[in-house]
Design a protein that fits this description.
It is globular and about 50 Å long. By secondary structure, it is α+β, with helices and mostly antiparallel strands. Strands 1, 2, 3, 4, 5, 6, 7, 8 and 9 form a 9-stranded antiparallel beta sheet that branches. The relative contact order is 0.21. The protein is built from 3 helices and 9 strands.
């Protein structure tokens, strides 16, 4: 099927572009919520392992506390024109519980290994259930590229 709208990517292209950005970018906005304290949003470094987003934060941070109460999160890459939004459920791993492969990859990407620093830190793992991607208004229609954990296109 040919793309008939100028500047409008098909779902397969949006998926490919989103995966490339997840593999190459460094920062991600993490939005959590607490029933008593409301929404909370912070930028964190992240690692995409091909299936899940891995992040690390202080064990006593608002993000970690919120996830213990309400694990549903929304993640977004920082570009407001080339938007990639992910939704999923966060799992928390202590420095002792985190899978070594994930922690080693995180340390390799950032040159910082939370396991070797005073903490405590927690690793957060989010397998996306929904991903939306669009560049500007022409791509708002059809922006969902993952639904129910399955990539489209």
């Amino acid at each position: 099927m040919q793309n008939t709208e100028p500047g409008r990517r098909q779902v397969a292209e949006r998926r490919r572009d989103s995966l490339e950005r997840l593999a190459s970018e460094r920062d991600m906005w993490v939005a959590t919520a607490h029933p008593d304290h409301g929404p909370h949003q912070v930028p964190l470094w992240f690692l995409w392992d091909g299936r899940a987003v891995w992040m690390c934060t202080g064990a006593t941070s608002a993000t970690a506390r919120n996830i213990r109460t309400e694990p549903r999160v929304r993640l977004s890459l920082p570009d407001t024109f080339d938007v990639v939004l992910l939704q999923g459920v966060a799992e928390s791993f202590t420095q002792q519980e985190v899978p070594g492969k994930a922690a080693d990859a995180f340390a390799g990407k950032f040159g910082w290994d939370p396991r070797t620093h005073d903490g405590p830190f927690v690793y957060l793992r989010v397998v996306p259930t929904t991903v939306s991607a669009w560049k500007g208004e022409p791509e708002l229609r059809g922006r969902v590229v993952m639904r129910d954990g399955m990539w489209l296109g």
